[in-house]
Amino acid sequence: MPEESIDHINFEELNSKAISKPIVTHLYTADPSAHVFENKVYIYPSHDVDAGEAFDDLGSHFAMEDYHVFSMDSIEGNVKDHGIALHIDDVKWAEKQMWAPDANEKDGKYYLFFPAKDYEGIFRIGVAVSDLPYGPFIPQPNSIHGSFSIDPAVFKDDDGSYYMYFGGIWGGQLQRWRKGVFNADHPESPTAFLPEDNEPALLPFVAKMTDDLLQFDESPKEVEIVDENGDLLLAGDNDRRFFEAAWLHKYKGKYYFSYSTGDTHFICYAIGNNPYGPFTYSGRILNPVVGWTSHHSICEFKGKWYLFYHDSSLSKGVTHLRSVKIAEIKYNEDGTIQTLNPYN
User: Fold this and answer.
1) Residue 156's beta-bridge partner residues?
2) What is the DSSP string of 205-251?
3) Distance linking the first and last C-alpha atoms of the chain
4) CA–CA separation, 140 vs 142, rounded Å?
5) CA 198, CA 143: separation in Å to the nearest integer?
6) Assuming Cys at both sites, which of 71, 235, 292, 325 could form a disulfide with 201, CB separation 3.0 to 4.6 Å?
7) Which of 31, 65, 151, 311 is catalytic?
8) CA of 250: how far to CAs of 63, 156, 199, 293, in Å?
9) Mean pLDDT of 27-37
10) Are 324 and 23 in contact (CB under 8 A)?
11) 244: annotated active-site residue
């Protein structure tokens, strides 16, 4: 449910129909990345605040400045807030807008991956490290060399390789990198440099990580999302093309790349045979929620699969004040995912 329709929402009625409730209510959280570490679910969301920034399509009102980490012993159990895990004041290269993060573990160390704007106003991706899954995390002095745009998601494959997926258009700046360098022209326009509707849509990127998970081990490659005929999705295919919120999980030997369509507010997915793709569009996981954005993660816990997502029902539709929710997802026999309606 995009923001323009919220004036007509009865939130009491809507919340009574919601398939799940906010799991954190003492502050606003969004963009949840969920992982199972030490037999617990750890959630790494962004932390929404009302910083008084003007609303615009560049996302200036998403002025987040720190991260909290949350954990759960069970999906139905209490959620523990472990407090501030990283603050932008501790990140030398970053000026503002600590957007959607992710995390992963290797050899007993925990790594927090996060985007932020540097002092030139360009989104980069950084890494911070901790001995504990909830931090505090110590940031590297510089962002990942060659990183750009937003929404890092780091997937660990069965062979121990780690891959980062990232990218987001409009305020996420992906369209400004079409020629391999940042295009700073028309800074007020979130849609400058987008492809025409009949051209292939902009694609997210993937890069294998170095053994220490601190850098890319290769130049980032585009992640192809194709239709049933093997053709790239077009920029005008707003109901299916990639916008932001990349995520990868593996189910029965297949790789599931999921993402948000942004201005049409769907969480969609595509299936491939290896972590680089191509991925064939396969359907929707989640229909639109209250609030403009939709951003998610998927993980397995105790034999069931769960979608972690957010909406703005707790803040009564305020786009930049969101709350994390959880819903079980189910697979059909052919491997497709049953679409969830957030409000029955």
Assistant:
1) 162
2) EEEEBPTTSSSBSS--EE--EE-TTSPBPBTT-TTTS--EEEEEEEE
3) 13
4) 6
5) 35
6) 235
7) 31
8) 33, 10, 30, 25
9) 98
10) yes
11) yes
Give 27-88 as a DSSP string: SEEEEEEEEEETTEEEEEEEEE----PPP-TT-TT----EEEEEEESSTTS-EEEEEEEEEG
Give the dihedral of Cα atoms 217, 256, 308, 236; nearest 10 deg: 90
- Alpha-carbon torsion, ordered 236, 242, 245, 251, to 10 deg: 140
DSSP 14: H
121-154 pLDDT, tens digit each:
999 999 999 999 999 999 999 999 999 999 999 9
Query: Are 142 and 118 contacting, i.e. CB atoms less than 8 angstroms apart?
Result: no
Query: What does DSSP assign to residue 133?
Result: T
Please tell me which residue in 48, 102, 105, 244 is annotated as part of the active site. Answer: 244
pLDDT on residue 11: 87
Which position has the token pair 């959620």?
A: 79
Percent of the chain at pLDDT > 70 equals: 98
**Checking DSSP bridges between strand 153-156 and strand 123-130, what pairing results, if any?**
unpaired
d(CA 59, CA 119): 17
Provide the β-strand partners of residue 304: 301
Q: Which two tokens stand for residue 10?
A: 């009865």
3-329 architecture in CATH? Answer: 5 Propeller (2.115)
CB–CB of 226/280 below 8 Å? yes
Backbone torsions φ then ψ of 33, nearest 5 degrees: -105, 120
Task: Kindly give the pairing relationship between strand 162-166 and strand 221-222.
Answer: unpaired
pLDDT digits (tens, 9 = 90+) for 51-106: 777 677 788 888 899 999 999 999 999 999 999 999 999 999 999 999 999 999 99
